[in-house]
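Incident log entry.

Two folding requests arrived from the same account within the same minute. Monitoring flagged them as a possible duplicate submission, but the sequences differ. Recording both here for audit purposes.

Request one:
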Amino acid sequence: MASQTQDIANQIETLGSRLMLLSHRLRNGSSLESQRTEILDATAQVNAALEGPVDDVREMFNHFAKAVSIRLFIKWGAFTALPPIGQDISIDDLARKVGVDSGLLVRYAYVLGAAKIFNRCGDRLSHTPRSLSLAATPRMAQFFFDEMLPPILASPAYFDKYGPKAPTCRKNSLFSFGHGKPGVSVPQVINSSPERMANYVEAMKMMDRTYPFLAPYDLSWAADVAKETDRAVVVVDVGGGSGHSLKEIVKATRGLSMERCVLQDLPKIVEAAKRVKDQDLEGLKFVGVDFTAGRPVDGALVYYMRRMLHDYSDEACVGILRNVREAMAPDSRLLVVEQVMGEPPSLSATASNIFMTSLSGKERTLENIRDITARAGLGVVKAHWAAGGEAAIIECAKAM
C-alpha cells in the first residue's frame, strides 16, 4: 500500500510539473484553444491516478445522470427560464415558471449544480457560461442524447445479432438498428422529421468548428501555378456541401478566385446550394456527381476532402480515393482534412470513434490513413497539424 501511495505521489508530482508548463505557455501568449486538449488530458491523468474500478462504474452512472438532466432541462425550457447572468431564481419559482413539479425538478437541478453546469446556492440557481450556452444552442445536446444514445445502448444487441465485427454497411448501421430501422440508411432516419434534421445540422455545425479549413496549409503555391499556366481549375471541393469550406479557402489564399474553384457533391445537394444564390460563391462551378461512384473534374491542382472519409469504412474510402486519383494530374495534390488519432489517442478522439462506428465509419490514425491512401495509389506527402487538437490536413500525391 505504501508503494502504491508513493507511485501516486510521483504521478501527481509529474503531472503538477506538466500543468505548470502549460500555465507558463498560457502566460506567455499561447491561446487557450491551442493548449486546451493537453490541459484536459493532464487533468484526466490526475483523476486516473486516483480512481479505481468502483469509480469507473460510478463515473459511468454520473455521466448518464448528467446527460438526462441536461436533456430534461432543455425539454422543459428550464435553461432559458433562468434569469440573466448575475441574477438567481429559487427552484420553486423556476418549477412554476416552466410548469414542472418542484419535487421532480429539484432532483435534476441538484445533478446539474453538482456538475457545475449552473450555480446552485441552497435553493437558488443562477447561470454560468456553460448553462448559457445550453440555453442558446441546445440542439447539439439534443442530437447526441436523442440520436446517438439509442445506438450506444443497442450495441450489445446489435453485435449479438450481426456478430462482433466492425460495421461497414451504411444501410445496416448500428445507428439505424438502434432506432428500430434496420436496413434504412442514416440520412433517411435523420430526415424522418424536421426536428431531427434541424438538430443534426446544428450539431454538425458546432463540431465543424473544431476542424481547420486550410491553416496551417499554405495553398498560395497553387494560385501561383495557375497564374503561370492555363489550368482552368485550381481547387475541387469533393463532397463540398453548401460551399462554406471553399469560401474560407478563397478568403485565406492570395490570388485564388472563386471562378477557379469547383464544388462537387450529390446532384440534389448541389442544386440546393445553387438555389441559395450566395454572393460569396459567385463564379463557382457546381458539378453534381456522387463521389462514391464517379470521379471528380479532371486535372485540378488541388482536390479537397473535409470531414468526409471518417463517414466510411476502409474499403469504401479506398474506392472514393481511387476515383480522385484517376482525376488527378501528375502535379495534383489531395488535401484530406480529418481528425487523426494520436498514440495514445485522447478520450474525445476515442469517443468520436465510437460515434462514427455507429454510422459504419471510423476515426483513423495517421498509419490508417497511409494504408487506405496507399491502397488507392496515393502517397502521404505530409501531415499538417492544426493547433491545439488532433485534426490535421493530410497532403497526398499520386504514388509513382
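Request two (distinct sequence, not a duplicate):
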Amino acid sequence: MQTYEDNEPIVRIRDYKQDRVNFMLENVDLAFANSFRRVVQADIPTVAVDMVEVEANTTVLPDEFIAHRIGMVPLVSANCDEGIRYTRDCLCLSGCQYCSIELRLDVSCNDNRTMDVTSNHLEVIPPSYTDGENPGDELTKRGEDFGQPVGKNKADVPPVLICKIRKGQELKLRCVAKKGIAKEHAKWSPCSAVAFEYDPYNKLRHTTYWHESDPRTEWPVGENAKEEEAPRDDEVFDFNAKPRKFYFDVETDGSLGPQEVIMKGLAELQTKLANLILGLKEGVELPTGGDTTENGVNGHVSTAGAWGPQAGGGNWGPNAASGAGYASPAGGGWATGGSSGGGWGTSPAQNTGGNTGAWATSPAQNAGGAPGASWGTSPAQTWGASSPNAASGSGWGTSTQQGWGSPTQQASGWNL
C-alpha cells in the first residue's frame, strides 16, 4: 500500500492576487511546512529605511516617532538579491550607491489647512556617476521603481500616512535605505501576514478547545475544512496519524510580489538545508580548548610553548614535553603528562626530581631536584622568595628571564 510519504509534494494554488496567494501544500512533513512558513516571514531580503537624518521638524510629532514610521514604509524590492549589496559586504566605509539608497522628504504647509505627509512625498535620489563610467552590476539590475515607496502615485493604492501638518509647519529629512532581513528587524519582512493551518477538524488532537457545552458549536470549522473529510462520531483515534495537508495564505506588503516571495522562500530553505548537509559531510572538528595558533594567546609570540593541546615545548595539554612553569623560556606549561619539563603535573616522573621543576605536591620534588626546582619549601623558589634574580628557578619572582614579575616583555611571558 502506497502512503502519502512515498508521493511527491503537491502544490495547488486556490487563489492568487496582486499582493496575496492562497495555496495548499500536500505530502510534506509538518517540520518542512513550518520551516517554510518561518523562512518566508524572516529570511527573505528586502530594502527598508535604516537611517533618518532630520534637518527640520516643526510638526507636533518628535523626531523618533517620525523616523520609526518612515522605517516601516515598505519599499519596492524586486530583484533585491542582485540589485543591492549588504552593507557588511560592501567595501565602502559609510554607504555608497551599491549598498544603500538615498531618499529625501521636504514638505511645508503654506495654506490654512491640514496637510497629510505621506509616503508619496518620499523621493529617491538617483545614483550619480559620470558619463562613460560603468554603473556596476547592481545598478543595472534594478528596476525603475526600485527603492520607491510601494504604490507611489498609483490611484488604486493608498499611500502610507507619516504625519499631519498645519500652516507654518515643515518636515525636511534625509533617509538611507539598506538591505536586510526580518531576523534583524521586522521592517525588512516582505509579508504582512502568513496564515498557516492544518487538520481543520482537529482529528490529531493537537489543539484542546476550551468550551462550556459543545465544542463543535462554539468552535466552528473554517473554509479549509472543505478540503478534508469530516470525522465520524464512532471513529477510532489513530495515534500514528500525521498531518498531510497544509493551507497557506501569504499576504505581502507590496515590496515583493507573492510569487517572488514563495520562490525565494523555497530557494532560501533549500540553501539552508544544503549548507547543513555540507557541514555534516565535511565533519568539522570543533576545538577542544585553548589557542593553537602560532602567535600564541592574543597575539603574544612565545619562543617555546603554546597553549595548544600538542605544543612541543609545554602547554595546558596532556602531553607537555618539557618546560618549567607558566612563563618559562624553557617551554613549560600546565601539563598532566610531561616527561622532563615543569608544569602542574601529576605524572610520577615529574614529582621525583626532574631537571626543571614542576608545580606539584610531591615531597620528592624539593629533595632531589636539580638547580631548577619547583614551588616547594625551598627558600629560593617560593612566592615570597628573597632572591630577586632567581634565574635558574621557575617561580613568580622578579627574574629577568621568566615569570610575571617584570614590567618588560619576557622571552615567553606576558608584558604586564
